[in-house]
Amino acid sequence: MSMVSEILEELWNTEYNYKGVRVNIFGIPRFQKYSQRNIRTTIDRLKRKGLIEKELSGIILSKHGKEYVRKKFDSLKQFERPTNQPKERKLLVMFDVPTEKKGEREWLRWHLKKFGYIMIQQSVWVGPAPLPKEFSNYLKEIKLDRCIKTFKLEKPYK
What is the value of pTM for the model shown? Predict the structure, then answer.
């Protein structure tokens, strides 16, 4: 998760302030692994983009920022790896997702790894058949199924 995502998520979830900084319920700032300079730079960038606002009580998400975070949380669902999935790699998945859908492409690759698929080439993966039904239905829902082709292999890939 990037620092931008962590800052926006923290602003979305936290209601506690201490000296203008959002803290967890114990009063500890959540961004200890980043330098103060990186945090200030990122916050200034988020302010320029209109995602956050500085107020007397501290930094809050703007209306545009809340909309942005809501879209991020709702945009792509997460799926669990099926428990009864066979180990044989008998399904070849090929995809060509346009560059303007980079987030969806990375989401797809992440889930293929999660489902036990391995990459043969950049957009060619092989793994257990079939893909989970709910995952396939969601691909249709977000219109990513048009960019994906699957082929059942006669013999398992080694």
Answer: 0.55
